[in-house]
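From the methods appendix. Each design record in this collection lists the discretized structure first, followed by the designed amino acid sequence. Records were kept in a plain field format so they could be parsed without special tools. The example shown here is representative of the layout used throughout.

RECORD:
C-ALPHA CELLS (118 positions):
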C-alpha cells in the first residue's frame, strides 16, 4: 500500500538516489526509498562474474548508506535517525503454502492458526 502523498519514481543512478535523499534530509522532509533487487544475479553462484556483480552491488549499497549517514551528520540528526530510515533494499521471493495436515503434532492437534507454521 502506498501512503497518501507518496510518489513512485524511477531514478537510474545510485548517486542520484542518495543525492535526492540527502537534499530531503537537509530540508527536514520525510523521504524514503525502497529498492528491489534480485536475490542472486544470473549465472553460476560461485563463478567469478557473479561474485564480481555481488561485490560491486555491496560496495554500491555501502556508498549509498555512507552518503545518507554523512547528510544526517551534517544536519545533526545521526542520533535520531539511521540511513535505513531513508533507504532499504529488498529481494522478492516466493513462499510455498504449507499444508496444515502435514503439520499435525504427535498429539494429533494442529498448531494454532496464528503460528508461522500455518
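DESIGN:
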Amino acid at each position: 500500500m502506498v501512503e497518501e502523498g507518496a510518489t513512485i519514481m524511477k531514478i537510474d543512478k545510485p548517486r542520484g538516489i542518495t543525492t535526492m535523499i540527502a537534499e530531503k534530509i537537509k530540508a527536514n522532509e520525510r523521504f524514503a526509498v525502497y529498492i528491489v533487487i534480485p536475490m542472486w544475479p544470473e549465472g553460476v553462484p560461485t563463478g567469478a562474474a557473479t561474485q564480481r556483480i555481488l561485490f560491486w552491488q555491496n560496495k554500491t549499497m555501502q556508498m549509498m548508506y555512507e552518503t545518507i549517514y554523512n547528510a544526517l551528520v551534517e544536519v545533526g540528526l545521526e542520533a535520531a535517525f539511521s540511513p535505513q530510515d531513508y533507504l532499504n533494499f529488498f529481494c522478492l521471493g516466493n513462499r510455498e503454502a504449507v499444508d496444515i495436515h502435514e503439520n499435525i503434532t504427535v498429539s494429533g492437534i494442529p498448531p494454532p492458526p496464528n503460528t508461522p507454521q500455518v
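APPENDIX NOTE: Residues 98 and 118 are 6 Å apart (CA to CA).
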